[in-house]
Amino acid sequence: MAKGDIPTPPGTGTVGKLTPDQKVLLREMWSQIFDMADHGTVNLPATPSAETDSIASSSKQEPEKKKKSGGWFGTYKGSASPAPSSSSASDNNDTVRVNLADIGLSADQLRPALWNNILGDHPDSLLLRFLRARKWNVANGLNMILKAFKWRLEDDIEEVKANSEDALNEKYRGFRLQMEMGKSFVHGQDNDGRPVVYINVRLHKPADQDAKALEKFTIYVMETGRLMITPPVETACLVFDMTGFSLANMDYNFVKFLVQCFEAYYPESLGVLLIHKAPFVFWGVWKIIEPWLDPVVASKIKFTRSDSELTQYIPANHLPDKYDGGKDKYQYEYIPVAAGENDRMKDTETKERLVDEWKALMWKFEALTREWCDLSKPTNKSTRTESEVEAERDQAAKDLRAAYFRLDPYIRARTLYHRSEHPVLQGDGSSIWTYKN
Question: Which of 116, 216, 249, 332 has its CA 20 to 30 A from that of 355?
Fold first, then answer.
């Protein structure tokens, strides 16, 4: 474990389950994000400690690139122009100044990247994922989340959410084919209440779709799957079904992309990954893949050699009966995009009203979070107690979630899991699974 790393004690580290020390670090990360949003810079201790570690060495200056817009989110009050990117050292020898420009972002981009990522989650949940992934080292967590924001902007993750499967298929050859064949889909929950993502590896042929279409499809599954993760659950279960696998199905570039997603862009999202019925030929492949894995991700990989072993992780009543021991008569079927299912996205008047309602709650949550962060400062003059501010802040987070899902159908295309015979995704953000036992 690196200097400054702090392990997460069992049962802690998530919303509502923070130790006093973890709460301090969460406040620190929020404060640093606010500093960057307001000024484009943040000052960090020059000497690594248990709470912070300089990220200046990893934030090298990059050529200026054309920035993507904030999409439906629009502009923000309180945004400031980024400080000149040439200033990476503070006048104070005890601190190092880190600029957003050195990461490749602007202050105007920071809030859209943050809030477009939060969606209907408790805002703390996103920051806590990156803090846990970096062993509660605030600066390393900040560096990681900013780089994830940059990736989301550059790879236009909002495109996957805002466009129908048909529209995505027109742009990315083979996108819809992957859904039609059932290469990957989400169905049911495991023993810990996590949504289960099935990947039928034998159906993958690298030439069947453009590489970018495969990446976009992966993001589609991950961004849709996020909607099925209901607090207090925070992770998903993946089943890599290797039945019928041959070397013709192997795609090393995709594996690298998937590993990067779980390690860098969606940290702390993987609960367990089951590699099921791996044939002998796979073990040579595994020797190549295993060194690429972060130890934390690698520790979540389990091998199941028989169908009956799957029931150690997935209840028999939830497991499709194609697997021995499974009792659910579920069979995957792709239901095409229905005419008019996204018409609400054309209703700009309602969308703008709901966006304004959601933004007002966002600003309220941010104001309460700033107040919460300031409570621990010697200069704080608030007459309110920490418990009072936290209670109001938690209620604001609940109101934000409700407002987001009222807005969701006006900014996000419907998915297979909205239009199925028994829709999984509900209008209030909950998920209802139907099992055929």
Answer: 216
- Evaluate if pTM is beyond 0.85: yes
Where is 61: in which H helix or E strand?
none
Buried b (16+ CB within 10 A) or exposed e, 195-225: bbbbbbbebbeeeebeeebbbbbbbbbbbbb
**CA separation for the pair 289, 125 (Å, rounded):** 30
How far apart are the C-alpha atoms of 433 and 425, rounded to whole Å? 9
Block residue for tokens 């027109």: 170
Residue bearing the bigger pLDDT, 58 or 256 = 256
User: pLDDT (tens digit, 9 = 90+) per residue, 176-223?
Assistant: 999 999 999 999 999 999 999 999 999 999 999 999 999 999 999 999
Return the CATH fold of 172-310: Phosphatidylinositol Transfer Protein Sec14p (3.40.525)
User: Residue 117 in contact with residue 158, Cβ under 8 Å?
Assistant: no
**DSSP one-letter string for 126-148:** HHHHHHHHTTT-HHHHHHHHHHH
pLDDT of 87 strictly over 80: no
Nearest of 20, 262, 6, 232 to residue 125 by alpha carbon = 232
